[in-house]
Amino acid sequence: MHKLILAAAVSAVLVAPGTAMAQSPIVIKFSHVVAEDTPKGKGALKFKELAEKYTNGKVKVEIYPNSSLYKDKEEIEALQLGSVQMLAPSTAKFAPLGVKEFEALDLPWLFKDEDTYAKAMKGPIGKWLFQKLEAKGITGLAYWDNGFHMASANRPLLTPADFQGLKVRISGSKIADRYFRDIGAIPQIMAFSEVYQALQTGVVDGCENTPSNYLTQKFYEVQKDITVSYHAHLQYAVIVNSKFWSGLPPDIRAQLEKAMNDATDYTNSIAVKENEDALAEIKKSGKTTLHYLTDDQRKAWQTAMRPTYAWAKGRVGQEVLDLIAKELDIKMN
Ligand code: LMR
Known about the structure:
By secondary structure, this protein is an alpha/beta fold. The chain is 49% helix and 17% strand. It is built from 14 helices and 11 strands. The protein has helices at 2-15, 17-23, 39-54, 72-81, 114-122, 124-134, 174-182, 195-201, 211-216, 242-246, 250-285, 295-305, 307-316, 318-328; strands at 26-31, 59-64, 86-87, 138-148, 150-153, 167-170, 186-189, 206-209, 225-227, 233-241, 289-291. The structure holds (2S)-2-hydroxybutanedioic acid (LMR). The site of (2S)-2-hydroxybutanedioic acid has 8 residues, from loops. (2S)-2-hydroxybutanedioic acid (LMR) is lined by residues 33-34, 90, 146, 171, 192, 209, 213.
């Protein structure tokens, strides 16, 4: 039996070494946790389309959406082990990698609007953060936008008092853990794929997320009240296994970089509209009530969450805070 297999392998190599190579494309497994009908889901599909086109089929991209291959924490381990080649996790999920500095981006009301966010991530911060990944065997390729978080529960969340004792699901960032504690809630880290059921069964009372995620995961069906607070930003880092990436033939890597740049422009150009549309659809469903904060209510949230800024230094370090403060021309505490 063994001899037969060996003979077959040897003859395949002898008969057509070049052809055998050319016929088997390089496969990139791209795993993510959200639905395809979201900014990240669409970005991944766009990357697949362009990568396969620009490399003339020499690269095949297999996309595994909706945690169908791995859940949050497992996918990061899988990337390091080389079981998948590409991911786009929220930057709130990088602490298990030992790179806590990304969590600085989760500070509440850090970016005053989408333009400020987009400009900041094109500056030195984005590159500085990516350099932190290299020591972990991971290469950062791009940042993808998914807008601002809302907060929800089965009661209106309008003042800090409304958060008292509320069990809130968070995705991983200790900065989010802190600002929810500051405002009186009890945060709990949980994989994205488990949130709907946890909300439905009351394992947690509430959560935060962007409109596109509320819509596609149906969170709005199990949360009676959603506050369109936009209190923190959600962004993704598209990352690859460095060994895989640097081992690619240079011409293929260049084509993939172009595909990634174009897919990034596309994703970042649709993120705002996708979330606006999702919010409109949630509203139309009539299954939940949307709340908007008055200026005074927003100020009360901001004041309650402000201690997170001073606390952040011990978590993410002064260097990243200084970089962000300089870029945004703001004071950190
Ligand atoms: C979450 O876990 O809430 C998000 O990071 C999911 C995502 O990737 O948008």
